[in-house]
Amino acid sequence: MKSERYFQEICHRVKPYNIETEGLKENGSMYFSYAGKSLCRVSPDGITYHFSEHLDTEKKKELCSLMTEISEEVRVYVQSVEKAPPLKAVDLRDGYKLLCEHEKIVLAGRDIGEYGYEFVTWQYTYDRKGVTLGHYYHNDYEGAKEDFAVRSGLVSEQRLLKNEELQVIYRALDQGQKYIPYLTFDQEQKILDLKKKIELTSPKAAESFKKEQEAQLEKPIFLVRLMAGDLERDLLKVHNDSEGNPLVHELILPATAEELKAAYDFGTKSETCYQTIQGIRYSIPVGDMAAADLNSLNESAKMIDQMSEMEIADLWISLRAYYLEYEYELKEICEEVLSPVTVMQNNLTM
Fold first, then answer.
1. To which H or E segment does residue 42 belong?
2. 247 by DSSP, 3-state: which?
3. Please, are residues 202 and 166 in contact by the beta-carbon 8 Å criterion?
4. Do 172 and 252 sit in the same domain of this protein?
5. CA 298, CA 134: separation in Å to the nearest integer?
6. Binned average pLDDT, 10 residues per bin, the chain of 350 residues
7. Which H or E element spans position 109?
8. 213-221: Cβ within 8 A, 24+ apart
9. What's the total number of domains in the chain?
10. Which domain covers residue 305, as residue numbers?
11. pLDDT of residue 91
12. What pTM did the predictor assign?
């Protein structure tokens, strides 16, 4: 395997993760860094060596695991494409190498230089002189191999789980680990083992879930809608302003004092005003609240916004035993969940 091309492809693959290339050293290894500090080095034979003294954050540890996966995957397909014979087919442009074939299906790949590698699965024509019905995979060797296995009949599609399906399973495992009360040590360990297995077999599914979680944490805790209108046969008929627009005011919690005042002002201006509340970031059962005490709701939202995953799990377990009707009830439960932390902080400041 040509080490120069191997290192070039690794550098291409790690760019999206903000991993920087330090260059080749005298020992023939390619060195990589993150945030200005050395992260690891990859030898010409594909072995990744980590600099443990710099692995001081979970992010760097995850990146080192990622580097190991990428360097091994790149080694396999760069070596395979180099050694494979050319794929001979009518009207097919040069450069494709025959990696594997079974029945009427072929798996081919080609080196496209600075753009990485392209992999394709084709079906032979009836006379096996040409290929047709190509499925193209850019820098996705694993995806191409899976497609080849299914198209050629080596593996039944029903026995494979797609990335989207694995993401759903990963989400269910993560939520179960956090929110199912009274898990035994063995049960939690089995959940962790299954999560790790998905992370290894389908990194894209685990990464998609983590991005989804990060996006979820950017959302507000509650959304309160104040609507001016009248009830007619248990249905709310919302009033319109002079321009024909519905008289509706939305308040996102946590809110500032100014935003709370605007919501209260909207309510006082209307002869009849109805409120609804919805949990946005977390599915907290608040839908039956009157949402009249916006100050208490806002205090609860502020506390929930600061809670750790463990505290959110405790809150969820506590709420399962309550039927929330008034805003102060939620505030009291939030205070109880945070009380051990509050006591500890007070003791530290004494």
1. strand 37-42
2. coil
3. yes
4. no
5. 56
6. 85 89 87 87 87 78 87 92 91 88 94 92 92 92 92 88 89 85 87 89 84 89 91 85 90 94 89 87 78 88 90 84 83 87 45
7. strand 105-111
8. 216/281, 217/281, 219/280, 219/281, 220/252, 220/253, 220/254, 220/280, 220/281, 220/301, 221/253, 221/254, 221/279, 221/280, 221/281, 221/282, 221/284, 221/300, 221/301, 221/304, 221/305
9. 4
10. 222-349
11. 80
12. 0.59
CATH number at residue 52: 3.30.310
CA distances from 107 to 51, 157, 281, 296 (A): 37, 17, 44, 62
- 129 and 48 in a single domain? The answer is no
Report the SS3 class of residue 325. Answer: coil
Q: Specify the long-range contacts of residues 106-110, CB closer than 8 Å, at least 24 apart.
A: 106/131, 106/148, 107/144, 107/145, 107/148, 109/77, 109/80, 109/81, 109/84, 109/141, 109/144, 110/81
Q: Is 304 left (phi over 0), alpha (psi -120 to 50) or beta?
A: alpha
Q: φ, ψ for residue 44 (rounded to 5)? A: -60, -25
